Amino acid sequence: MATIAQNVLTQLDDSQVRRHHVRLFSLAAVGIFVDGYDLNVISAALINLVPSLHPSSLETSWLSTSALIGTALGAAFLGRLTDVIGRKKMFVIDLIFFVLFALASGFAPNMMWVIIFRFLLGIGIGADYPIAASYVSEIIPRRRRGAFLAATVGMLSVGSIVANLVSIFILSVDHGPSAWRFILASGAVPALIAIIMRSAMPESPRWLLVKNREQSARSSLQQIGLGDVATLPAQNLNRKYPYWKLFSPQFVRITILVTMSWLLFDILAYGVGIFQPILLEGLGFHSGIPALLGNLAINMIGFAGMLLAIATIERVGRKWQQIIGMLGMGLGLLLVGIMSAHGTKGLPVGALLAVFGLYSLSNNWGPSATTYTSPAELYPTALRAGGHGLAAMSGKVGAAIGTFFLPLVKQAVGVSNLMYLLAGVAVLGAIVSIVFGVETKGGQSLETIEDKIVGIRGESVNRQQTNLQL
């Protein structure tokens, strides 16, 4: 019986990447694309919304933060729910939030309702992080799992680029005070397309095995292309972990790693990213579309970093890619601080793009990929979405801290000192990664990683030739 189960897991892990893998990855990753679109579209909307609704500085901070607070709650609570009711059901439920509240944001009557609808939109955004990561990690062959997970979170960059392009188009066509409404509501379009695309997805066979749903698992395996099997004993997938196990001695190191590194990373990624057009204006770019074009150029450099991450994550490894990326982000921010200290106007455009580009390249090559990948690999199937949701929640708490306090700190201490502080946050993130980092490169199965972490040496460990470096 165990041999048959091992053969099923071996087929999942050792098959070549085929068309059905790419299709299912695309269906999972399309939600992350919408996440990137909806989280970043606010940076363009602010350019038009501020002179239209005349929000106070505090209201602007709440507007930029509301979706992130919702994202934190959605990741934590709906991530755990995903382990209970399944990946596929939650894939559709979370996108309903996207459609309804993206449209509602565009039709909001006043600033208060924009903030509320962006918060509710964030709940759906947060749910998609653990669902997509869990699904991709559970169906992709082990030797390409890291690359596909990096590509999944890389869709955030694609979403932000498309958000910039759409926003530029809308602002070019409509210069009126209501252009921000079209910008915010536009997020409903890709979400609606994603709902239609995801309706035919099979459930994760690993999750079905955990739930002892043998007939459904058989059907799912057929849809994934593995064919029929006589029986499906779940072997070590039958291990049951209550949610509190995330904080047990077995998993506490993992939990510290994934929560703290993601929190520190998102303080930087969202604190700088959402206000990047405004920062560029303050550093010499003209207002409006030119600042958005500069933001787009920086995001394109970040996209190149995402492609590089996909190519190197299995060779460089999750731990060192995260450490080097954090330090690269810190260096970029330090250089921005030095440049801005010598004058906030008239800085060379090429120099600004170079230092912000270094920050963006390091961001997307390093911790953007690795903070998303690590919890999906390090937690067992029964805890995967819940653990990933906890990590994503921590990240979005960091994002909310960054977006809420960045304009206030900038006003109090100036751009250059703010950049120095953020560079220090990046260095702290590198230190956390060094102390608590866990390496999973080498194409290990999820069950082998689990066995190593919980201290079990069994047949599923011995069938792997690579070792988990703890």
UniProtKB/TrEMBL annotation:
Domain of life: Bacteria
Alphabetical list of SUPFAM superfamilies matching this protein: MFS general substrate transporter
Protein name per its UniProtKB record: MFS transporter
Membrane-related topology note: Multi-pass membrane protein
Species assigned in the record: Alicyclobacillus fastidiosus
Keyword terms, alphabetized: Membrane, Transmembrane, Transmembrane helix, Transport
Chain ranges passing through the membrane: 24-50, 62-79, 91-109, 115-136, 148-173, 179-197, 251-272, 292-311, 323-341, 387-406, 418-438
Record Pfam families: Sugar_tr (PF00083)
Keyword Transport among record annotations: yes
Keyword Ribonucleoprotein appears in the UniProt entry: no
Principal location class: membrane
Subcellular location: Cell membrane
Major facilitator superfamily (MFS) profile domain segment(s): 24-441
